[in-house]
């Protein structure tokens, strides 16, 4: 491009020699005073005007404006409401519309010789420093115009040889971004030469001016080779580190040891910019925590009518503890008249659970739509269907998607997410005892999981806030208006070979819709669906290894912890200790499991299940091994029985080992009682699995040495007593009904 510029502004004459000498003598003192003095630096901030182009107000635009407001920049936004005709800039040339808008926008400022103009992108740029620092750094360059520099060349690599050689720093005018600063008349000279179309390439336009030696010298253009003012991230992600200062956060270029004023996520680095934007300039600091979490909150306590929410429930594989998951939906702290539910159940096994839930919920929730396995929908199709139900219903203000593997323990979750007032937001849920969660902090180059620097700190709650993230799954809230505007297409869960959640997140990112995760509250956890065997009658009994927290909540007596805090252990007979261990659910399901198996031994002496094949004092029983529960039962003993043993038999540390673990069935027509005997154990546990007076009459246990009987065992409570020598005992006869007990001979 040949240079044809307007006449440059008149040059100012140098000061007289005497005045110059005086200024030289005073310079050190003035400089030191300036460094000590807070407030404006080398030039007044009102002599700086920032231009940007935004035809749409995206999440990126609002973030840019927030950082600009933080530093009190004056920003003039061009192109508002105008149709974008500059092309798809994410992967192709274009952007000429921005030059045309800037050309029109600065005409009225072209003659202001002392006015500094800055042009930056806004969708993928944040400010990290203030106007005074910016002006100081610009003036120190001693050039009229400064462009951002890059280590990569775009869009025409053939122009590389025309660039001036630099000894240190980045050589090329920044690729993919158009960020520059300069005096108004000189910026005007550049953009006035634009006579191309809106979809022509702005990058090539600026590049050709810069690589023209005459134009470069005449306008006095340079590049910010060492990222003093502008930091572009493409090709430089590893150079940029967070620098935590007191009450603020900067981005530091570790190669040049500079603190750039702007950070630009050009090219494929927008995800990394989002990570940096979670901190810079003051979004989260070590001193203040999250300073933007309470911005633009929606206070539900002030509304007369709660927003309507469509809840999308997805049961895509056999899932442990599903009835409890469904029941939690009805305990959400949210007006039920404002809720409707869409359920996709892909598992025949869970149809019985869905039916029970529908019977409970049909008179509570105004609308419930269930799509079962007979519809043969793929996961992506089902998720598209659920989301579209909200999209098509203008009364639907939020879509709350939740997978069946989410244990939502906080009933206020829905309210909290709505009040946070983001287009897409997810509550943090994690796998118990692991770093596995429902979000990714970064992506690998091929779009899969990568761990961000702050991932562990967020998961473990060492950094608390609302975080802009590239991927979320399992549970999230989306505004209905977002579904009807930015995300109005019906197919967001199908894309190439991506799984549905990855497809959704990629589409949201490309639409410029930010996704957030919040860990400001405890919300719940994720359960594991791995190795979930549905061949049993009550399959959750086997989940003590995969999902120990849920197993404990479901099957351990709620008063178990009081054994150690409130000393509720009773001693009805000498060295016979009585304490709560099982919930009613555990008792009922264990009995159901045994009856479903049905192979009761009949109380015979000949017993091939035991060593030697002979039982001296037989019971009518089923062994845990017979139903495949032995390993889980031994783990239960070590986790929950062993601590009680140490408490009541001080100094004895059990190995938690037992050869015989079984459920006994007493009934008048099979086995009414059990004759006196010792157990082949160091100690024995005997857990009552049903209720005397309701399920049976009579029964109990008598310890003959002490002439002490326990005739009213409590459901879910266990006896613990020595097995040999001192505690000869017998099973007292039942009168009617059926009595069940679970027994283990521990440390034989």
Could you write a compact summary of the structure shown?
The strands form 11 sheets. Strands 17-16-15-18-27-20-28-25 form an 8-stranded mixed sheet, sandwiched between helices. Strands 1, 2, 3, 5, 6, 7 and 8 form a 7-stranded mixed sheet that branches. A 7-stranded antiparallel sheet has the order 30-31-39-35-42-33-32, covered by helices on one side. It contains 19 helices and 42 strands. About 25% of the residues lie in helices and about 25% in strands.
Query: Which regions have little confidence, pLDDT < 50, spanning 5+ residues?
Result: 1-42
Using only C-alpha atoms, the radius of gyration works out to 36 Å
Structural class: alpha+beta
What's the total helix number?
Answer: 19
Binned strand content: 15-25%
Report the count of strand segments. Answer: 42
Main beta-sheet strand count, sense and barrel state = 8 strands, mixed
Lateral strand order in the biggest sheet = 17-16-15-18-27-20-28-25
Percent in helix: 25-40%
Report how far the terminal alpha carbons are from each other: 94 Å
Shape: elongated
Description of the structure:
A hairpin with a 5-residue loop joins strand 23 (442-443) and strand 24 (449-450). The protein is built from 19 helices and 42 strands. It starts with 16 loop residues before the first helix and ends with a strand. The protein is α+β, with helices and mostly antiparallel strands and 748 residues long. The protein is 26% helix and 23% strand. The longest helix is centred in the first third of the chain and has 20 residues, at 17-36. The strands form eleven sheets. The chain has an eight-stranded mixed β-sheet with strand order 17-16-15-18-27-20-28-25, sandwiched between helices. The model is unreliable at 1-42 (pLDDT under 50).
